[in-house]
User: Fold this.
Amino acid sequence: MESKPVFLKVLNIVTALLFVVATGLVFFYAPEEAVMGNVQRVFYFHVSAGWVGMLGFLVAAVAGIVYLRTGRHNWDIIGLSAVEIGMVFAFINIVSGSIWARPIWNTWWTWDPRLTTATIMELIYAAYLMLRQGIEDPDRRARFGAVYAIVGFLSVPLTFFSARLFRTIHPVVIGTNQPGAEGAFDMTAPMRLTFFFSLITFSFIFFDLLWHRIRLGRLADKVEQLKLKAIG
Amino acid sequence: MMFLRLLQDAPAETTGYMIAGYIVIFGVMLVYLISLMVRNRSLGQDLEVLEDLQQQKDD
Assistant:
């Protein structure tokens, strides 16, 4: 097995430290929101997880474009890795949002445009993984995966802008809220600091996990090739 | 919300939901980390076996 690069080890440590500090800021530095109470603290990691989800799908789309242009298998591994991580964080985003919604909207779930588009986005990428499972030929799998990741990415801006374009109860962080938005709040300076720190921390988490997942993908490829060699 | 803001003199008691939210957030992240480690270890073992087989074949 390949040994871990020094830079990856440093990234692991930096990411872990950032995560500890971000968690501390969320629970001990950011003030309790005046109306919603402590559940508002979910906001910091809920939005950050959503950001990582979308970042993952963006990286997958870019990797898909580069794969189609170069045909280099490495970009297929990057695309798959980014989708997998994106799905994990989009899932965290959806579930934590549902828990936040329960006391604020008085329901676990509603088919609001933002929630609906986020769910569709998650399902689109779940289908990406299923599609890949169904194709045996690695080149064909990579080509189909690349095209799917590019087309599937259309769901990401649709999800992001859904709370701005359609009538929705979901509040927005950047921009003006819709008149019916429930759960909106004005961020104080400590809240803003905690929020941006969490966003940066989650970006580090994404790139750290991506690197690990790419290494795993390369290892899986190596094993696959040796298996084929052993059979042949 | 504005109406509620006028009537309310203390934040709503929603600590339980916050705890539930963070259990999900930390839990899912932990499960994913463990899944990466398990897959890595299992592939590492496969690689060792396959490399040994290859070595025997070459000898």
Chain A has a mean pLDDT of 94. Chain A is about 75% helix and 0% strand. The interface with chain B takes residues 1, 32-42, 45-46, 49, 85, 88, 91-92, 95-96, 99-100, 102-103, 182-184, 205, 209, 212-213, 215-216, 219-220, 222-223, 226-227, 229-230 of chain A (CB under 8 Å).
